[in-house]
Automatic annotation (TrEMBL), chain A:
Gene field: gcvT
InterPro entries registered for this protein in UniProt: GcvT (IPR006223), GcvT/YgfZ/DmdA (IPR028896), GcvT/YgfZ_C (IPR029043), GcvT_bac (IPR022903), GcvT_C (IPR013977), GCVT_N (IPR006222), TrmE/GcvT-like (IPR027266)
GO cellular component terms, semicolon-separated: cytosol; glycine cleavage complex
Domain of life: Bacteria
Positions contributing to substrate binding: 213
Name of this protein: Aminomethyltransferase
Source organism of the structure: Kocuria soli
Domain (Aminomethyltransferase C-terminal) ranges: 304-382
Domain GCVT N-terminal: 12-283
Catalysed reaction equations from the record: N(6)-[(R)-S(8)-aminomethyldihydrolipoyl]-L-lysyl-[protein] + (6S)-5,6,7,8-tetrahydrofolate = N(6)-[(R)-dihydrolipoyl]-L-lysyl-[protein] + (6R)-5,10-methylene-5,6,7,8-tetrahydrofolate + NH4(+)
Enzyme nomenclature, EC number: 2.1.2.10
UniProt keyword annotations, A-Z: Aminotransferase, Methyltransferase, Transferase
Length: 385, 128
């Protein structure tokens, strides 16, 4: 922990007032939990939670070639996104390893917003800038701008999210909120005591619940994020909204079977191993960075595959622990925790491709004690719709 | 909040965050500083009555949603009683680490290196 090197967000003072425990995450000074992380986790499953995600990166990609450029730089077909919609994609290196996983929003025909992970924002920016020159030496007509410091991001996640947000938006924005689909983004006006605040609502998240991520321009108005947080907190009170830290964010995403870069994804891990082959547009795109290596990996089949593991105890398998089959090492755990919703241990692990069938009996070496786990279907938790 | 506010002044502490009281047999527990760092505790593994524990050596485990941490015995001796209540309800450690959530009692033969509350708190502040 080093407060001198960790960057504050526009909401750090709010978290301090709420009594948060802090941690450095990706170079940012972030709330880990405000009280009980299990209680925060359960609030998101049962009512709603509010998260400061201002550490996430925001990269603006604009210009006449923006769509074509992103098709070249990322593994997906971003040029096919409709205006107002979003797509999950990967930024891969030439070897097919994942530099970052990111969400791209199309805000206009020539206007995209790319959202990388906090720790990977510098690497994502560098890769995108380098890729503005295509394979044929032609330079894409795009402007890439790092908007991270100028943008605050607040997430409201959980079944009560929509009801809470409807209480804070201006009457003319009501329809925009109720009709906003999953993986879509829209301009919304929020009413605050000091006037109207224009923001963007995206129906996205990292929790496995319905929810929203709210992008706030903090460039010329550094109090905007705090005003929005305050309005959301007071509107949310009657709905059971609680502030949530990164500890619950991690246990929520794990239950939802979502990968975390640095654990299930890295420059040494390809999308096929991580179960993300479907986001690689090998069929619809003839050329993009990493395509040759990815096509080869797909053809050969990955050397290991990501699976879900579970058992009936609370003894969790932690990142780095060895997975065993008949006493022989066959893989490694990447994430693991006692699941607050399910009440037993869950984990993500890379194992040999022949051991991925649900029901397969494996063991994890828990600090010298081989402990039974079985392969289960992902996600561990799926909300009722 | 500085570390001294999270320290019970009636106990002495090991550098590994265990507290020990002055009763006979002695009660052993985990400091609030350790518990706060762990987060919500979901599992506690304690030495059974009759087993021998050695100062500075691992004698159990505490697991939270975020991490797992070993319990080091602050003293050498024989365990008299393990606290079944905290095994049944590990969340007790988060709410009352210096009271109801004591871990085990020991018939003490010898002590490891123990710190006063002030020394222990100062060591934590140094780490920040």
């Amino acid at each position: 922990m080093n407060t001198e090197e960790s960057k504050p967000t526009p909401l750090t003072a709010v978290h301090e007032r709420l009594g948060a425990s802090f941690t450095d995450f990706g170079g940012w000074w972030m709330p880990l939990r405000y009280g009980s992380d299990v209680a925060e986790h359960k609030a998101v499953r049962e009512s709603a939670g509010i998260f400061d995600l201002s550490h996430m990166g925001e990269i603006s990609v604009t210009g006449p070639d923006a769509g074509a450029f992103l098709d070249h730089a990322l593994v997906g077909r971003l040029s096919a996104i409709e205006v107002g919609k979003a797509k999950y994609s990967l930024l891969c290196n030439e070897q097919g390893g994942v530099i970052d996983d990111l969400i791209t929003y199309r805000l206009g025909a020539d206007d995209f917003l790319v959202v990388p992970n906090a720790a990977n924002t510098p690497a994502a920016l560098a890769a995108l800038r380098e890729r503005t020159t295509g394979f044929d030496g032609e330079v894409f007509d795009v402007t890439i701008e790092d908007r991270t410091a100028a943008t605050a991001l607040i997430a409201v996640q959980g079944p009560a999210s929509e009801a809470i947000l409807l209480e804070v938006v201006a009457p003319e924005s009501t329809d925009a909120v109720t009709s906003l689909r999953y993986y879509a983004i829209v301009d919304v006006v929020v009413n605050t005591p000091s006037g109207e605040l224009p923001v963007k609502f995206a129906r996205t998240g990292y929790t496995g619940e319905d929810g929203f991520e709210i992008y706030v321009d903090a460039q010329d108005d550094d109090g905007a994020a705090e005003r929005l947080w305050t309005v959301l907190e007071s509107a949310g009170q009657a709905h059971g909204l609680v502030p949530c830290g990164l500890a619950s964010r991690d246990s929520l995403r794990l239950e939802a079977g979502m990968p975390l870069h640095g654990h299930e994804l890295s420059e040494q891990i390809d999308p096929y191993s991580a179960g993300l082959g479907m986001v690689v547009a090998l069929k619809s795109k003839e050329a993009f960075v990493g395509r040759d290596a990815l096509a080869q990996i797909k053809e050969n089949g990955p050397a290991r595959k990501l699976v879900g593991l579970a058992n009936d105890t609370k003894r969790a398998a932690r990142p780095g622990y060895t997975v065993l089959h008949n006493g022989e090492p066959v893989g490694e755990v990447t994430s693991g925790a006692p699941s607050p919703t399910l009440g037993h241990a869950i984990a993500l692990a890379f194992v040999s491709p022949d051991l991925t069938e649900p029901g397969t009996e494996l063991e994890v070496d828990l600090r010298g004690k081989p402990t039974a786990f079985r392969v289960v279907e992902l996600p561990f938790y799926k909300r009722a719709r | 909040m500085s570390a001294i506010d999270k320290v019970n002044k009636d106990y002495r502490y090991s550098a590994e965050h265990e507290w020990v009281d002055s009763s006979t047999p002695a009660k052993v527990g985990l400091s609030q500083i350790a518990v706060d760092a762990l987060g919500d505790v979901v599992y506690v593994d304690l030495p059974e009555a009759g087993t021998t524990v050695t100062a500075g050596e691992v004698c159990g485990e505490v697991e939270s949603t975020k991490s797992v941490s070993e319990i080091y015995s602050p003293v050498t001796g024989t365990v008299v009683e393990a606290n079944d209540a905290v095994v049944d309800d590990p969340a007790m450690l988060n709410s009352d680490p210096y009271g109801q959530a004591w871990l085990f009692t020991v018939e003490v033969e010898s002590e490891g290196e123990l710190l006063t509350p002030e020394e222990y708190a100062a060591a934590q502040d140094d780490e920040d």
